[in-house]
Amino acid sequence: MRNALATFVLLCCGTPLFAGPPQGHVLKWSDEFDGVALDQTKWVHWLPGKRRHAVNVPEAVTLRDGFLTIATYTEAGSHFTGMISTRDKYEARYGYYEARIQWADAPGQWSAFWSQTPTIGKPIDDVATAGMEIDFVEHRAVDHEGKPLAGKANFTLHWNGYGKDHKGKGHQTPNLGLDKGFHVYGFEWTESAYRFFIDGKLRWEVQEPIS
User: How far apart, in whole angstroms, are the C-alpha atoms of residue 175 and residue 172?
Assistant: First the structure.
């Protein structure tokens, strides 16, 4: 039952248009991105430097007119992007998490709004203690075979670390037109279930394993 590390890779609008949390929740933390720079009392630039086939740089994260934009671009043959996190700023257990996101993915990109515990897999097969990675929503333009996915989204769970003991489960939505405009992605975490929402509609529910 470790605290979650919320790490975001998203294009988010600060306009307060929300689907609304399930009954019983009260607001504890929010950011409407209404400044001109990332609020460093709430966020850190996460894992700067080379990651997989790109380099994470702070310059890829910008704020303007109430929008947070995380860009992916190529210069001189190198790919650049960014990740931001609430690590050591805000780490919560249970509750309802929500972001309003517009995807702008191209083939080769994999965007996500997610949380991860630093103790994943420690110990093995004890998710309640060790925690897990919870991908509230993942988005890609195409899959590894080039099949279009832009209108769809994935919800994914990972536990037991990322090596030989790794386990996971996931769900892919039908084509919901998620490549067009902003949509609200919500996640509810209780002691007995995970619930994944898009625009206020429940799309997937899991009863085990629960961190």
Answer: 9
Q: What is the pLDDT of residue 22?
A: 84
Identify the residue whose tokens are 């309003």: 100
- Cα 195 from chain centroid? 14
pTM: predicted TM-score of the whole model, two decimal places: 0.90
pLDDT digits (tens, 9 = 90+) for 17-40: 566 788 889 999 999 999 999 999
User: In the chain, which residues have pLDDT < 70?
Assistant: 1-19
Domain locations along the chain: 5-206
**Domain 5-206, architecture per CATH:** Sandwich (2.60)
Q: Classify each residue of 89-127 as buried b or exposed e, where b means 16 or more C-beta atoms within 10 Å of its C-beta.
A: ebbeeeebbbbbbbbbbeeebebbbbbbbebbbeeeeeb
